[in-house]
Design goal:
2 domains; two-stranded parallel ribbon; globular; alpha/beta; UDP-galactose 4-epimerase, domain 1; Rossmann fold; binds uridine-5'-diphosphate
Length: about 325
């Protein structure tokens, strides 16, 4: 029996693979390496290079490795890119997920974990936002993920497939042991961008919007350490293995930090006073979004271990610094 991790060569997926391998599970990764890295998948996990939309390939992989659960990370994740390229996002996140689900059902895979997003809520009326809040994505990215959640709901009704959809808030940080981190070139996510500025890879960073209806005028997000997020997935797998029914959980700490708070934390931890420019709002950004996390704690027994912005930043920074060392050595 093996677990298929789609997108396992990417940022979050590679951390998941490390955790599953640490648990002694058999893992096979399917990744087209469009944003992932071959080196991120370390033995004994196996890497198959290909698309999740390639149904013949997926069926072959499921059969060859005896896959009985799929953890589906592969997808596109940049909100402003989705505004510029909605059809690309619907193809990659929605159409290809449908293709993957179809093979899962046809091949008899009964457990499915899906990487969803807080973006399904749009700009929630209340924060922290609970899983029962209205779903009103503000970007094609959020809609593309919500459509997959809806499909999974229908598929689970019709077929013998149980799923957990995890709605990620803002994932950041790196493996505390330094084995993986975020390596994406042309990064757009705030903590990564700020760490790049702190390590001299960028001359400055921009804050997108200072006129939001928040305490300091910048957007508020709930930043979750990638290791805690991974443990939400292993808890979800345990839940499905124990016969758990299909469900949806927020993944966040129920704590909000503004963009200005994050920038201050990166400056403090790095000791570098990099340049910060105020810029106009970015398309598709909600003002404030913070996770209600009661449900995941109660149902999956999930308890965070790295619920600390400075720890998240210090792990992200350590990874950024070691990326420089690797680059200089090569
Ligand atoms: N942000 C920013 N400057 C940057 C990158 C991001 O001001 O260089 C802001 C962005 O507008 C949002 C927050 O930081 O309010 C988090 O954005 P990110 O792209 O990290 O994640 P998202 O919430 O879009 O998934």
């Amino acid at each position: 029996m093996a677990i298929l991790v789609t997108g396992g060569a990417g940022y979050i997926g590679s951390h998941m693979v490390l955790e599953l391998v640490d648990q002694g599970q058999d893992v096979v990764v399917l990744d087209n390496l469009s944003t992932g890295f071959r080196e991120a998948v370390k033995a004994p996990a196996k890497l198959v290079v290909g698309d999740i939309g390639d149904q013949d390939l997926v069926a072959t992989v499921i059969k060859k490795y005896g896959v009985d659960a799929i953890v589906h990370f592969a997808g596109s994740i940049v909100v402003p890119d989705s505004v510029a390229d909605p059809l690309g996002y619907y193809q990659n996140n929605t159409v290809n997920s449908r293709a993957l689900m179809e093979v899962a059902v046809a091949s008899g895979v009964k457990k499915f974990i899906f990487s969803s997003t807080a973006a399904v809520y749009g700009n929630p009326e209340q924060v922290p936002v609970s899983e029962t809040a209205p779903l009103a994505p503000m970007s094609p990215y959020g809609t593309s993920k919500l459509m997959t959640e809806l499909m999974l709901g229908d598929v689970a009704q019709a077929h013998d497939l149980r799923y957990v959809a995890l709605r990620y808030f803002n994932v950041a940080g790196a493996d505390p042991a330094g084995r993986s981190g975020q390596s994406t070139p042309r990064a757009t996510h705030l903590i990564k961008v700020a760490c790049e500025a702190a390590t001299g890879k960028r001359s400055h960073i921009e804050i997108y919007g200072t006129d939001y209806p928040t305490e300091d005028g910048t957007c508020v997000r709930d930043y979750i350490h990638v290791s805690d997020l991974v443990r939400a997935h292993t808890a979800a797998l345990d839940y499905l293995n124990a016969g758990g029914t299909p469900d949806v959980f927020n993944c966040g700490y129920s704590k909000g930090y503004s963009v200005a708070d994050v920038v201050a934390a990166v400056k403090k931890i790095s000791g570098v006073d990099f340049s910060v420019r105020m810029a106009k709002r970015r398309a598709g950004d909600p003002a404030a979004i913070v996770a209600g996390s009661d449900k995941i704690r109660a149902t999956l027994g999930w308890e965070p271990q790295h619920d600390n912005l400075e720890e998240i930043v210090s792990h992200a920074l350590a990874w950024e610094q070691q990326l420089d060392v690797v680059k200089q050595a090569s």
